Amino acid sequence: DAPPAQAAVARSVREHPLPAAYDDSWAALRWVLASAADGSDPWLSQYGDLSRLFLAGDSAGGNIAHNLALRAGEEGLDGGARIKGVALLDPYFQGRSPVGADATDPAYLQSAARTWSFICAGRYPINHPYADPLVLPASSWQHLGASRVLVTVSEQDRLSPWQRAYYTALRGSRWPGEAELYETPGEGHVYFLTKLGSPQALAEMAKLVAFINRD
C-alpha cells in the first residue's frame, strides 16, 4: 500500500520572504503530527505511521526539507514522531565561496546572490546556513533529524556541484545516519517536472519509491 502523503504550501516569497517558507513548513509538519495524534484527521490517524515520516522536496523544496529536518533534530517532534528519511531532489543550495565550474563565472555568482537576496528580502547573506549548509560546523550536522538522506543530482544542473558538496559534507560529518547520492546524466535542474514519462524520470521515481519503502 502507498503511504499517505501531505503536501505543504508556503506563502508567496514575494510578500512573505524567508524565513516564512521554513516557518510555514514547520507549522504544516506540526499540524500533521497533532492531527494524527488527536484523531482530528481520521485518514492520518488510520493510515499514518508517525515513526516513519519522510520529508521530500525538489529545488527550493529540497532546501526547505533539509532545514526542516535540521530544526526537527534540534527542537524535537511531538508524540514520539521520527523522521525516517529525507529526499532532496536537485536541492537549491548556494554560497559565497564558489563551488565547481561556476567559481570562474562572476555573472552567475552575482545572479545567484541577487536571487537569494530577493528570496529573503536581504535578511540573510548568501553564506547563511539557510542557503549554504557547507558553512555549518561538522558537529552541527549531527542534529539533522533523520535516519537516512537521499540526494539526487542532475548532471547539467548548475547547482550540481553544491549538491555533491552537500552529500560529501554530510558523509564526513558527525551525523550518524546513512546518505545516498543518485545522479542522472545529461539532464538539467528538476528535468523530471517537464519530462514526466522519460526513462530518466521514471528511473529517478523508482529510486525515490525504493528509498521510502525500505525498512
UniProtKB/TrEMBL annotation:
Superkingdom in the source lineage: Eukaryota
InterPro entries linked to this entry: AB_hydrolase_3, AB_hydrolase_fold, Carboxylest/Gibb_receptor, Lipase_GDXG_put_SER_AS
Name listed for the protein in its UniProt record: Putative carboxylesterase 2
Coiled coil: none
A family per Pfam: Abhydrolase_3
Domain Alpha/beta hydrolase fold-3 positions: 15-192
GO molecular function, one term: hydrolase activity
PANTHER family for this protein: ARYLACETAMIDE DEACETYLASE, OS09G0461500 PROTEIN
Source organism per UniProt: Dichanthelium oligosanthes
Active-site feature positions: 59
